[in-house]
TrEMBL record:
Keywords: Transferase. The lineage of its organism: Bacteria, Bacillati, Actinomycetota, Actinomycetes, Pseudonocardiales. SUPFAM superfamilies: CoA-transferase family III (CaiB/BaiF). It comes from the Bacteria. It holds the Pfam family CoA_transf_3. This is CaiB/BaiF CoA-transferase family protein. The keyword Transferase applies. It comes from Pseudonocardia kongjuensis. InterPro entries: CoA-transferase_III_domain (IPR050483), CoA-Trfase_fam_III (IPR003673), CoA-Trfase_III_dom3_sf (IPR044855), CoA-Trfase_III_dom_1_sf (IPR023606).
Length: 402
């Protein structure tokens, strides 16, 4: 069965996490991702990330680069630049995640490439964008979580600022880039004219402030950390400690609160005027939450979950990574990928959450992330280069030296 993007070719100058994460979803949907790796620096730096790293590859790299092709190419050399332009002629998009001033230096913006392919989309996911006072600064997830206000919201009140457990600015930035790429490619095919996509991790982080940002800008709301990861306005909606662990309970609708009072054996709380509505419970949270916490500590997580599930109250045990990966729902939803690797053996990783097709449909096979330059000769031959031309490029350093 044809995949929805199997007629899309993207030439990618990507590295580390955010950029490769975004293009991997498109690869799973069938797009051809030709990953250009700079041979002068050992390729994508993700290949060296510890602790599970071997010469030229790592499990970090395998996590972000399945289903792609890799070529070595120094686009700053004359020969490398010529090959790059030949790739642009055959591609729908050039995708990169570099510092904001680097796309201009490398000549990978639309104004640089429109003469070669007027329909080319030039998508740049940078730390801070290609305009603005921070555009030349390097941007990494930790930095953006600090600047974007995230760390001020994460953690317990009175504690040190905290980042999220995962690099969510990077990953959300990758999703933003994937959406922009698809939109721009669609527009270029419709109109016959390409464009730039100037995306940034900074824009991503700030835009994801969402409703607290709206509340602040419109009504002067001052966001603050909440105890036990509580929702800022919906009470109760937070982590609770049981006798043997932790669980989350979320009363996002009034009916859930009313059901919870029954499960807790305190149905009279639903009629208490202090706790009758969202607004009442928020106003009197300092009276309500200690009472709920005391009740929930009297029984185990399993003892609470059974009646809560039966009452269709939003709830869950707080699991570790192993628990999430072995959940029967994870398996049933086909979220685990397994590929063969010459050094690491069977590599088990996570498939994309992006799906196209009927519920329960089999996924397309996936393949391991490529060795650096594994597809160089094949791609060049497809562009019309013969063995002599490839050897000349290699001798000139455009493809790296053995």
């Amino acid at each position: 069965m044809r995949r929805p993007l199997d007629d899309v070719r993207i030439v990618s100058l990507e590295q580390y996490g955010a950029g490769p994460f975004g293009s991997m979803h498109l690869a799973e949907l069938g797009a051809e991702i030709i990953k250009i790796e700079d041979p002068t620096v050992g390729g994508d730096v993700g290949r060296t990330i510890p602790p599970y790293a071997e010469p030229g590859d790592s499990l970090f790299f395998q996590s972000f680069n399945r289903d792609k092709s890799s070529i070595t190419l120094d686009v700053r050399t004359p020969g490398g630049r010529a090959v790059f332009h030949d790739l642009v002629r055959t591609a729908d998009a050039v995708y990169s995640n570099l510092r904001g001033d680097v796309p201009a230096k490398l000549g990978i913006r639309y104004e640089d490439l429109r003469g070669i392919n007027p329909r080319i989309v030039c998508c740049s996911l940078t730390g801070f964008g290609m305009t603005g006072p921070r555009s030349t600064e390097p941007g990494y997830d930790y930095v953006l979580q600090a600047l974007g206000g995230w760390m001020s919201l994460t953690g317990e009140p009175g504690g040190a600022p905290q980042k999220t457990g995962l690099s969510l600015v990077d990953y959300c930035g990758g999703y933003v880039a994937a959406i922009a790429l698809l939109g721009a490619i669609h527009g270029a095919r419709r109109d016959g004219v390409g464009t730039d996509c100037d995306l940034s991790l900074y824009d991503t982080a700030v835009s994801l402030l969402t409703y607290p940002g709206t509340w602040h800008l419109t009504a002067g709301y001052e966001p603050a950390r909440t105890r036990q990861s509580a929702h800022p306005s919906l009470v109760p909606f937070q982590a609770f400690e049981a006798a043997d662990g932790w669980l989350v309970v979320g009363c996002a609708k009034e009916k859930f609160w009313q059901r919870l009072t029954v499960v807790l054996g305190r149905p009279e709380l639903a009629d208490d005027p202090r706790f009758a509505t969202f607004a009442d419970r928020a106003e009197h949270r300092d009276e309500l939450l200690p009472l709920l916490e005391e009740l929930i500590r009297t029984r185990t997580v399993a003892d609470w979950l059974a009646p809560m599930y039966a009452a269709a109250i939003p709830c869950a045990p707080i699991r570790d990574v192993a628990g999430a990966l072995t959940d029967p729902h994870t398996v049933e939803r086909d979220l685990l990928a397994e590929t063969d690797h010459a050094v690491f053996g069977a590599v088990r990783s996570l498939r994309s959450a992006v799906r196209v097709g009927p519920p329960g449909a089999d996924r397309a096979p996936t393949r391991a992330a490529p060795a650096m330059g594994a597809d160089t000769d094949r791609v060049l031959r497809e562009l019309g280069y013969d063995d002599d031309a490839i050897t000349a490029l290699r001798d000139a350093g455009a493809l790296g030296r053995d």
